[in-house]
Amino acid sequence: MKRLAEIAVIGGTGFYQLFRRPRVVKVKTPYGAPSTDPSIGRIGNRRVAFIARHGAKHQFPPHRIPYRENIWALHSIGVKRIIAPCAVGSLNPNIKPGDFVICDQFINFTRDRPDSFYDGPLAVHVSTADPYCPELREIAIEAGKSLGLPVHPRGTVVVIQGPRFSTRAESRFFRSIGGDVINMTQYPEVALARELEMCYLNISLVTDYDVGLEGDPSIKPVTHEEVLRVFNANLQRLREFITEIVGRIPEERTCICSRALEGTPAR
């Protein structure tokens, strides 16, 4: 398939549409159907694809999202860079609901999710020491500053299996190991993108404090309704943020992502 888009946005909870009149592309992958067929539109002069991570009707819970299908579908239409917003809970009292975090690390606690395109006969080992594209991260940080948004320039996201939220004991543990925010979908999405040498940027929109901050009875445990309320209240700011980022992305890639398979049998 010819290159239909160069940049993609994967929309998370509450973010199911990017363009008003998109071109929808039917894509077949070796793994099955993606969450939604990619829709193609323009942001400025850049062709951008969009997939709703959970499906158009939020029909895929975190542990059932077709992650490989989504990433492969975007790769097959020429996408090289992915912007991946998602809703997160805060594990850090300095990171508040309504803030944005440009994550630079993840800790994975998911299980039984297909998380590689290389199941044999090739044994391919790709580094995820720095899993998020450093070039896109710097662009996002500067874009957020220019818009006056409350942006945290780094953070570690703890990725849990879901669909349930954490217990208080789990939340204390996740904080103790250095987690800043918590989410259910960042893994294996980011790792799969690296395996196909795609740049991946996470924009974490904080919707809540994970089960409440320890010792603060005024902060209640998170609910799905509260996540959606806060996300929807900040959706327009998120759209403006993405538009600003896309406008700053250079044509040429010089980052580590574009060389991820060097020295492996996949090259």
* Biggest sheet record: 11 strands, mixed
The CATH class designation is: Alpha Beta
Query: What structural class results from the helix and strand content?
Result: alpha/beta
Residue runs with pLDDT of under 50 for 5 or more positions: none
Report Rg. 18 Å
CATH superfamily: Nucleoside phosphorylase domain
| CATH arch. level architecture | 3-Layer(aba) Sandwich
**What share of the residues does DSSP label as strand, in percent?**
15-25%
Number of strands: 11
- CATH fold assignment: Rossmann fold
Number of folding domains?
1
Mean pLDDT: 93
Helix % is 25-40%
* Continuous helix count: 6
| SSE sequence, one letter per element | EEEEHEEEHEEHEHEHH
Coarse morphology: globular
Tell me what the structure shows.
There is one protein chain. With 267 residues, this protein is an alpha/beta fold. It is 25% helix and 21% strand. It has one domain (7-259): Nucleoside phosphorylase domain (Rossmann fold, 3-Layer(aba) Sandwich), CATH 3.40.50.1580. It has helices at 67-76, 134-147, 168-176, 186-195, 224-233, 235-248, and strands at 7-11, 23-24, 39-43, 46-52, 81-90, 100-101, 105-109, 151-152, 156-160, 181-183, 199-209. Strands 1, 2, 3, 4, 5, 6, 7, 8, 9, 10 and 11 form an 11-stranded mixed β-sheet that branches. It starts with 6 loop residues before the first strand and ends in a 19-residue tail after the last helix. The model has no long low-confidence stretch (mean pLDDT 93).
